[in-house]
Design brief:
Distance between the termini: 20 Å
Number of strands: 0
Strand content: under 5%
Number of helices: 5
Radius of gyration: 20 Å
């Protein structure tokens, strides 16, 4: 419920920014989300490519995979290259460049927050007498 309510508040904020600040706040929000989508698809393509290689190297059988990407390894390679080309293309388009100005720092901030939270959680578990119990969910 908290995630739903927070998403609704964010959605309403984005809606109002599209009406009251379309050339500033809304443009930044759209740029961040657009770049995030491209980066996520790059991660998906890379994960699929690496998973299958690792799976087979560890002794897994291709016939045991529920889904086998057609034309592997070309499909994930082409998907990653196309997304990378889109990111590079953004740098050369003055109207889209704002996606890099705001999206890259936003992604970096997300990783930084994750790193800090993960590091502090692992430090708490190292010093806690109930470390095993706290980390099981």
């Amino acid at each position: 419920m908290n995630a739903l309510l927070l998403s609704m508040v964010g959605g309403l904020g984005a809606l109002f920014s599209s009406v009251y600040a379309p050339e500033t706040v809304y443009l930044v929000l759209v740029s961040i989300s657009g770049l995030a989508v491209v980066v996520v698809w790059m991660a998906i393509a890379l994960s699929q490519f690496n998973f299958r290689r690792h799976y087979l190297r560890e002794g897994g059988q291709l016939k045991d995979l529920v889904y086998r990407t057609p034309f592997y390894p070309w499909v994930p390679i082409i998907a990653f290259a196309a997304c990378l080309a889109a990111c590079i293309g953004i740098a050369f388009d003055p109207h889209q460049r704002v996606a890099l100005y705001f999206g890259v720092p936003f992604i970096g901030l997300c990783y930084l927050v994750h790193y800090v939270r993960h590091r502090s959680a692992s430090q708490r578990s190292e010093y806690s007498p109930n470390a095993v119990e706290e980390n099981t969910v």
